[in-house]
Amino acid sequence: MSNTVIPLLLDSLASAALIFFAAVGLTLVFSVLRVLNVAHGSLYSIGAYVAASICLFIASRQLSPYLSFVALLFSAVFVAAILGPLIERTLIRWTYGKSEAVQILITFGLFLMLEDLQRMVFGVQSLYEDAPVRLLGTSQIGGVVYLNYQIFLIGMAVLVVIGLRMLIRHTRLGRLITAVVADREMAQSIGIDTNRIFILAFSLGVFLAALGGALAMPTSGVAPGLGADTMVLAFAVAAIGGLGQIEGAAVAALIVGLARVLAIYFVPSLDAVAPYAAMLVVLLIRPYGLFGAVTARRI
Amino acid sequence: MKFKVGLTALAFAAGLASMVPAAAQEKPSSLGLGIFTFTSGPAAAYGMPGKNAADLMIDDFNAKGGIEGVPVKPIYVDEAQGAQGVIAEYRRLAGDPKNQVMVAALSSANCLALAPIAEQLQVPTVGWNCDTHQLLIDGKSKYVFRPNGNTIPEFIAYAIYLLDRKPDVKTVAIINPDYAFGHDGANIFKAALKALKPDIQIVAELYPKMGSPNYQTEISRLATMHPDVVFSNLWGADLENFVRQATPRGLFTSSQVILALGETILQRVPLPDGVIVGVLGDGWWMSPDAKANAETAKFAEDYKARFGEYPVFPSIKMANALIYVKAAYKAAMQKNGGKWPTRAEIADAMKGSTVATLTGTTHTRADNDGLVDQIVGVTVKSPDKPFPVIGDMVRYKGDSLMPKADQDPIAWISTLKPEFVKTLPKPGSYK
Questions:
Q1: What is the ipTM of this complex?
Q2: Which residue of A has its CA nearest to B216?
Q3: pTM for the whole thing?
Q4: In whole angstroms, how far apart are CA B387 and each of A241, A282, B30?
Q5: Looking at chain B, which terminus has fewer C-beta neighbours within 10 angstroms, N or C?
Q6: Under CATH, what is the fold of the domain B31-149+290-364?
């Protein structure tokens, strides 16, 4: 029995870690900007492409493979620093206060452009460099060989949850973000530069998306189409956790990860629908998600 | 007088009208070929080698004057847009009489969607990949042809090779993509095993969504089942991801792995020795027959020079499909006295034809399905290539693994007996 239970739990955690990275940036951006960014999945895959390109460059120049860990983080920072302010200032800012339909149309247009841009820049073949996986090696747990990198990802996800919590609750920036989330007009009236907060929050969301893609790349590579798949899963997780709830995204990722792994182990034919079945059940019981709350609509 | 002039004009006009069919059969300025493949999305890893081969072959045709003296103009359609888009593109291209033949398609789902339209519009359509055995199962097709064979011989070949190489196999796990090709492949492989070695147990069947980037959970599940054999017909980026994730986790050492489309990744992913791989047909560019063919060697070297990699079997399937089209024009023009053929004449020429390809021959049966040999082997290190190649090969005759045209394929497989394996050539016999 333990030969199934331990792998099942470990697989659930490892799967949840990857799912969490895909969703947390989306939920953060929604919590601050009130914008559902449909292009989020593309930012995830761009992070993966940039990480793969830099890691392949490191390998081709026979530089220290340990630099690939730095490359993963650098890729996310690079993508966030370039695309975060650029997208927020040129596109997202025009959607503030507009209807959800307008926001979705604009970010969907952005998604299509970014998907084509990736094909033009990175081609259509998959890119892959697994130096970080090779460096960390493997462990036998519950009779099954696991990549230590999978365990590293679980640790990274926990770190991100703690880091985001500390950022929001214990830093000045976090308090400013909280004020903007609570009441945008009031925050402006007391002198908070909301435009700056929006740029920072959106760029942080881009960073988290790109980091997710970069961290996933060494195990799963990156190929065209990754962005669309990621986006759909990220929406499911954000909906389960409650849009805008970071801890909710973490719990939702665990639920989705567990649902998917249980399906693969016991009912493989339900593998693809398991995350969405979990979402359906949660939303039937709690329509605003596990951590979401009913909010009054302003008229 | 006026009446006479009118009659003369009428006769002249009638003469002109009677000349139209003849004029229509004069050689056009160019021959359009609609070529359907995946040029984007995860399936492009399989589709692009096909397109590359088409580019190379058509350039070669045109350098030698085209097909029967007419330059070939390819029009590529990306199958990643989905069936509705593919159907719309097909109809648009078919509406132009210059586009006489369609080379369509890669995806079995798209082939099934296009087949009735090809019949309706009466456009010769050559499935360059189109593996599903369901495509021509009713035996009534007039315009749809599949020169590269179907899933029945392709997957029976793996079962036979496995039983020859590992006769003591007891447990098998399957991981295939979750669509028709994955499920058909699993059903054929299981049916063949059940008929040829009834005591084999299938301990797991996993069908991950096509395009999944992550197979870690599936690999854990396979590892917990400890199967003697893991069979997979994953392909494209999915196959690359699966192999890259499964290799460090020891799946290739704990089980005998069969990768039905493994040849496509030999140059891209380091596969360990001893993995059973094949080419879903005879399209291995390093097979003894291919090596003996100067044209194939030139194609492989030209391909390498132009695209940076040697061809993979989807490239060969595309090249062979184009050779098949070219041969049909030649045969049709020989039959009609050298006139440019109509679509119907081209289809007629394809029926029952036997065409020498880069890697063997393809014979088109009465049901328009192609008979091609099946090459299977295992990965071995190459003395002169920086990637593994196929060794310990066997080449099964195309007709030996195919049911008759009017037989239900799965029912036919169930009639096979364990002794059937003994009648076939053995691993290592194809040198």
A1: 0.86
A2: A11
A3: 0.87
A4: 47, 49, 40
A5: N
A6: Rossmann fold (3.40.50)
